[in-house]
What does this fold into?
Amino acid sequence: MPRAFTPKVITANALIEGDVIYFTKDDTWTRDLACAEYLTDEAHAQVRLLDAEQQVDLVVGAYLADTTEGENGLEPTHFREEFRRTGPSNYFHGKQADSKQQDGQAA
Amino acid sequence: MYHYNDFDKAFLAERNRQFRAQVERRVAGNLTEEEFRPLRLMNGLYLQLHAYMLRVAIPYGSLSSAQMDTLALLAEKWDKGYGHFTTRQNIQYNWPKLTDVPDMLDALGKVGMHAIQTSGNTIRNVTADHFAGAAADELEDPRPVAELIRQWSTDHPEFQFMGRKFKIAVSAGAQDRAVLKAHDLAVRIVKNDAGEIGYQILVGGGLGRTPMVGKVLNDFLPREDLLPYIESTVSVWNQIGRRDNKYKARIKITVHETGLEEFRAKVEERYATVRPTFSGVDQDLFEDIKAHFAPPAFRNAPTVEFDSAYDANPLFRSWVDTNLTTHRAPGYSIVTVSLKKHGETPGDATADQMRALAQIARDYGHDELRISHEQNVILPHVHKSDLPAVYAALREADLHTANIGLISDIIACPGMDYCALATARAIPVAQQIATRFDELKLEHDIGHLQIKISGCINACGHHHVGHIGILGLDRAGVENYQITLGGDATWNAEIGQRAGPGFAYDEIVPAIERLVNGYLDLREGPEETFLEAYRRLGLAPFKAHLYPETQANAA
Ligand code: HEM
Ligand code: SF4
It folds into this structure.
């Protein structure tokens, strides 16, 4: 029996900065997982991946990553994706720092 | 030190110009990622989890202070203020922007450095004993040979697209400090019964998925035959090595499947055609290169400042006893600067620390620095009378940790904190082990003990040859750590044995603590190191400490 489809988001690395980005409903890329398009249908997910891969001059290595809807919105199911959306554990660098900076600017 | 001539500089400038144009074409959308990827990898540029990573070669681990200053500049100007020194005597920058990389490469080019052949299926950065030119136990400085091999292999047309990468190491010490037996090919400088210097060639070592200890391919090669012999060896492998499966493509598998005898015969056969193509120009070049590595003008001076500081300052004394190695010149010492402060990331140095090291090398170290595969920095030539000043300067830069060869002097690869291939984290495990044993104030009592940690089976952290090896794996979506024991990275190279089932992330540090306490119980006395005790007793008694519950259940 084929395995049941588990929900996904499309993720990649930005071409210039190399950082982690997610594909949105309106064909743009976001640095925030919460704003990603949540894909619950397998056929639709495959079509969206094709759409994402069209944007060769913006992104590198787009793929589907397992995601669930938790209490605080979209959450990765695997620790690798958790690190990707957070940053390294030995320094306060990467997304964890960048998002704080953005919050700071907004405040 | 080897200094680039005009030809070398022009070559680098041209390569960098080409890469700049390639980056521009990629950004403009004129190159796809499939087209661009091999081009960026040829220039040492990877894409990791959170960003690009630029890997810069430090040939045979040798640096001048000007080069170290440039590494600091890169860290500060285009990265996040630090760099990571690796087991292959490279430095990795974890946060460059694609569009900044050409400027970084130009800055490196100005001091004769680059990132060429730090990736891809080429002959990689040639590594060497980090005490080269200073060690009391070496036959000669191995760096001229390493430089000769570097020049021969750089941009060698036959060896740009091989079946897999190829790693070469060189050493001339009685002790092996370069892990020769874990390399695809290693050159050990030896003396024969007639008193002539030549080369013993080892082949087929390697770690990764299928760890293997290198074997002697040729016991004594006369000096002038080195390059043709290496070229024949690489060429045979390049031809018969497997290209159907990248996990079977390294020379260790070729030698294993072909058999050492037959492989040697093939090398000899190839050698017969290759040898005549070497006219002796390489030997003239070798003589030129040797002149670049003339030893510095060692001075003859009293060491009273050292003696009085040693008597008066217990912190200085502890650092001296732990971080210094005997130098070949009277009155001199080799200083190993630890990049393993307890709780910090093994192998990381900030831009300020790099500049401080460069300044110390200028002031007290004949302008020379080395990077060790153990991810530390070496000041190879320091006169004893300067040691108190060097120690004071290192303290200023927070580089005075006295732990070389001890349990907190851990090798760790970037693991899942950076590396896209990782299956688990390695760095925080190293940080926690070091912090824990520092709290216990046990590490000097434990003595010589090497822990090596890799974040996946590729073994960049050398876990197979750690006295205690730790391999991070992904077991059903959770980090899990496998322990191996009894590995050895020296001339008596040994692949460690798996101790048993793995440990979860929050269980690994307590497991190591049980294991080390077990060793303290089991050893015959403080002179018996962990590895010696392990060799005497075997796995079983250590296992009992690692897995007390199973033991209890069995009882
Ligand atoms: C982007 C980061 C890295 C990638 C993609 C990478 C990739 C790999 C791969 C695929 C192997 C296995 C090769 C094989 O078995 O054929 C390997 C081995 C190795 N790498 Fe790395 N590595 C990375 C970082 C590092 C770092 C940071 C170091 C030094 C700390 C390092 C040093 C080594 C060493 C010593 C080996 C084992 C020796 C051998 O090649 O058999 N690598 N690496
Ligand atoms: S051992 Fe694995 S995790 Fe560590 S650097 Fe190498 S490839 Fe990455």
The pocket of protoporphyrin IX containing FE (ligand 1) is lined by residues B 46, 48, 53, 86-88, 92, 164, 167, 182, 206-209, 250, 413-414, 419, 421, 458-460, 462 (CB under 6 Å). Confidence is low (pLDDT under 50) at residues 102-107 of chain A.
